[in-house]
Predict the structure.
Amino acid sequence: MIKMSRRLDLMMQELKNTNAETFFHSLRTKKLVLEMIEKTNSHGLTDYSSEEIDCICKGALLHDIGKLQVDNFILTKETYLTPEEKEQVQEHVEYGYNIVKNELEQSELKIVTDICRYHHERCDGSGYTGMTDLPMYVNIVAICDAFDSLYSDRIYRDGFSAEKSMELIENSACGGFDEKLVKFMGEIARNLD
Ligand SMILES: [Fe+2]
Ligand SMILES: [Fe+2]
């Protein structure tokens, strides 16, 4: 069961009303994350407790909450973004971090804030800031986030097939991911098309 503060609940509602694409992407990302953790836990790559899994799922649900503070004109633009607009979009990770950090129990603080702040980092250093030393739960949310972003319809393009989305992930089109996670993502993707 994922418990949220009243304020976070209201903010998720606001996201649904103002940017449904991001809201539903967050729900799908959370679902993929749960499937991924079932694999990583059963193969011994991780050993997350049910409390930790709840925190990671909460982070997945909230990972893009900072987009509430990005100009909706930019988020709903159907054409390519200018470099300045891209920079504004990238700010959503810090906005998100600042939103959630005061709304969490001490026991969930690190996992949820790490996910909001670092889900666009990549373990090969090709992410927003180039940091590479990332907790596995951040890598898990990152690959599920990237996969859903490719696979789903966006305002500016139709979604790719699961097969094509996986090809892009394998070719590091969205940056490099942990090899084992790429393999597990492939298994999840095969059940989607
Ligand atoms: Fe994001
Ligand atoms: Fe996302």
Q: What stands out?
A: Residues 6-190 form a domain with the Hypothetical protein af1432 fold (CATH 1.10.3210.10). The first helix runs from residue 6 to 18.
